[in-house]
């Protein structure tokens, strides 16, 4: 049974976050709406990657027991459109703090920017901005920065699949970026500008994709921030936008399970099996960038996989998620187990 109740929703809800709202705002308001739709007193809802308040775009919410899948969803790459103003700087790296004009700044040409961008591919080291939610010595960096404290931000490895110059009308530069989780776009733009011999601040950021989820698939959550939001509630229930949990895990290898194996996993028993190649695998370099997420066997570097049930015609092309599996002495240990539609029916 789903810990939230037999009839609670389970899956991922792609939402559009308007600028000015926080990711926590989206979580709290979606949670309230879904509890009302299902008549539940409690329902777990969490996000699978935050967006700064000034940013807009796709925030992928995990609903019900899908919140237990967040570490694996964080492996997904993301795609952004980011706008930067060259020749200026700010303490926060964006418009949240006062802009300082860079005197005698020589702005680069489009050709010079494109040449510099060639160095920003693959695995690179990045120093996150001090105005960020990263914890340093147990405290949020942005809180310490606003206190005026002097501290050093730790470097981290990130993966940049691609970065392209979409438009450039000096001093405004727009980049299309596909990158791994944990990448700070503010810092990327500032580093690109610095390599061109000038400063930059980010003026706009839109997240368009998280894995296979796109901005076109989202529930527009602007109505939830209106004072009369009850009247603006869409006629279509929010659950119509809910996607099966397995759709957030298509980057993972999969073992197709029979009914005996499903029963063993629900009983906590390890199984044998050979995973099939992931439907939408991650770039090979990515495993070197996920040392902050416990999603693979650190002794063998073998990634976790998923166990799926494809026996039902209604389970879709990827099947129904049964478990997250971790390698253990040539067997697969059930790290997270989820109820299937058939197991709920049998209990009823």
How would you sum up this structure, described in words?
- With 348 residues, this protein is an alpha+beta fold.
- Among the domains are: 78-210, Pseudouridine synthase, CATH 3.30.2350.10; 244-348, no CATH class.
- The protein has eight helices and 20 strands.
- It has helices at residues 23-38, 70-73, 110-117, 141-146, 185-195, 229-232, 259-266, 341-347; strands at residues 11-17, 45-47, 56-63, 78-86, 88-89, 100-101, 122-126, 135-136, 139-140, 156-169, 172-179, 200-210, 213-214, 219-220, 254-256, 296-297, 302-303, 305-309, 320-328, 331-337.
- The strands form five sheets. Strands 1, 2, 3, 4, 7, 10, 11, 12, 13 and 14 form a ten-stranded mixed sheet that branches. Strands 15-18-19-20 form a four-stranded mixed sheet, covered by helices on one side. A two-stranded antiparallel ribbon has the order 5-6.
- The radius of gyration is 22 Å and the shape is globular.
- Mean pLDDT is 85; it is low at 1-6 and 343-348.
- Keywords: Isomerase, tRNA processing.
- Assign the CATH superfamily of the domain at 78-210: Pseudouridine synthase
**Might you state the CATH topology name of the domain at 78-210?**
Pseudouridine synthase
Number of strands: 20
What is the count of DSSP helices, taking H or I runs of 4+ residues? 8
Instruction: Give the helix level as a range of percent.
Output: 10-25%
Average the pLDDT over all residues and give the rounded result. 85
Strand content: 25-35%
Radius of gyration using CA atoms only: 22 Å
H/E topology pattern = EHEEHEEEHEEEHEEHEEEHEHEEEEEH
Shape: globular
Stretches where pLDDT falls below 50 for ≥5 residues? 1-6, 343-348
Q: Calculate the terminal CA-CA distance, rounded to whole Å.
A: 11 Å
CATH class of the domain at 78-210: Alpha Beta
Main sheet attributes: strand count, strand direction, barrel closure:
10 strands, mixed
Q: Class by helix and strand content?
A: alpha+beta
CATH architecture of the domain at 78-210: 2-Layer Sandwich
């Amino acid at each position: 049974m789903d810990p939230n109740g037999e009839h609670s929703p389970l899956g991922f809800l792609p939402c559009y976050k308007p600028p000015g709202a926080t990711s926590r705002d989206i979580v709290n308001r979606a949670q309230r709406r879904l509890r009302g739709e299902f008549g539940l007193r409690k329902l777990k809802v969490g996000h699978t990657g935050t967006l700064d308040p000034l940013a807009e775009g796709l925030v992928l919410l995990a609903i019900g027991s899908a919140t237990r899948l967040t570490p694996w969803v964080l492996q997904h790459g993301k795609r952004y459109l980011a706008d930067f103003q060259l020749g200026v700087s700010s303490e926060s790296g964006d418009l949240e703090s006062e802009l300082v004009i860079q005197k005698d700044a020589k702005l680069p040409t489009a050709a010079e920017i494109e040449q510099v961008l060639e160095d920003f591919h693959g695995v690179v080291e990045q120093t996150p901005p001090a105005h960020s939610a990263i914890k340093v010595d147990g405290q949020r960096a942005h809180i310490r920065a606003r206190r005026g404290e002097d501290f050093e931000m730790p470097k981290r490895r990130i993966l940049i699949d691609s970065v392209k110059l979409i438009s450039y009308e000096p001093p405004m530069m727009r980049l299309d970026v596909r990158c791994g989780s944990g990448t700070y776009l503010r810092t990327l733009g500032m580093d690109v500008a610095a390599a061109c011999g000038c400063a930059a601040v980010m003026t706009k950021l839109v997240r368009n994709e998280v894995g296979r989820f796109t901005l076109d698939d989202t529930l527009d959550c602007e109505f939830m921030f209106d004072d009369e939001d009850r009247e603006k509630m869409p006629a279509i229930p929010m659950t119509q936008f809910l996607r099966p949990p397995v759709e957030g895990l298509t980057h993972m290898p999969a073992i197709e399970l029979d009914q005996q194996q499903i029963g063993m996993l629900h009983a906590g028993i390890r199984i044998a099996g050979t995973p099939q190649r992931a439907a939408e695998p991650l770039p090979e370099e990515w495993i070197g960038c996920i040392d902050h997420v416990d999603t693979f066997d650190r002794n063998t570097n073998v990634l976790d996989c998923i166990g799926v049930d494809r026996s039902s015609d209604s389970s879709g092309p990827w099947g129904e998620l049964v478990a997250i599996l971790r390698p253990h002495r040539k067997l697969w240990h059930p790290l997270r187990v989820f109820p299937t539609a058939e197991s709920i029916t049998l209990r009823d």
